[in-house]
């Protein structure tokens, strides 16, 4: 049994570490764009193009089980994992953390496309974009409608920033007091977010609710199905133990 964990989140690093410590033959894959990772198990960085694609890597390395612990919005990679597992009839597990649920004080406007967001931007003066990399076309359109834009990403943006756009370089986890201060300092009146789930970036959602400002919340993309899908690591570990034929309690 040889497990390939395809990660990119703290959940992925945790799961790969647990599997290694429990005696599994596991390899961890990470794109390596934001962080490099240092784990006890073998790690490959930079994606699968260098190996001729995921399917070729699976063949060349005798992978028997695929575990998708990518970011919930990594649609292309998740769909590739589903396609490869189906094509080779390999057991595949998707572990994506539970998405955020709207609470009573939240002012969410759920969206699926940037066009929906752009149409609403004339209602705002100072917008905080926390949805990751953004296209030149989108930022240019928003910049014509909003007086000030603040965009936060972990990696440098791959676009030219209009004069009214400020880039904030930062990587989570983020604290509630800091997010509240940012909203106050820059007089933010709307946040643009992805429903990533988890604790690392939830503070901005709480801060927006506290400030009484709307959050334009991108819905998670529809993904190709995998054989097994979980929202917690323990369920993944238990299933993999079943595959391995172990009887030990986790």
Structure report:
The protein is of the alpha/beta class and 250 residues long. Helix content is 32%, strand content 20%. It has eight helices and twelve strands. A six-stranded parallel β-sheet has the order 3-2-1-4-5-12, with helices on both faces. A six-stranded parallel β-sheet has the order 6-11-10-7-8-9, sandwiched between helices. Helix 5 links the parallel strand 7 and strand 8. Helix 6 crosses helix 7. 32% of the residues are buried. The model has no long low-confidence stretch (mean pLDDT 92).
> In this structure, how is the largest beta sheet organized?
6 strands, parallel
The neighbouring-strand order within the major sheet is 3-2-1-4-5-12
* Strand elements, count: 12
Portion of residues in helices? 25-40%
The general outline is elongated
Amino- and carboxy-terminal Cα gap: 18 Å
Structural class of the helix and strand makeup? alpha/beta
Q: Report low-confidence residues grouped into runs of 5 or more.
A: none
Secondary-structure element order, as H and E? EHEEHEHEEHEHEEHEHEEH
- Beta-strand content bin: 15-25%
Radius of gyration: 20 Å
Mean pLDDT: 92
Count of separate DSSP helical elements: 8
In short:
This protein is 32% helix and 20% strand.
Characteristic terms for this protein:
single chain; 250 residues; alpha/beta; six-stranded parallel beta sheet; 32% helix; elongated
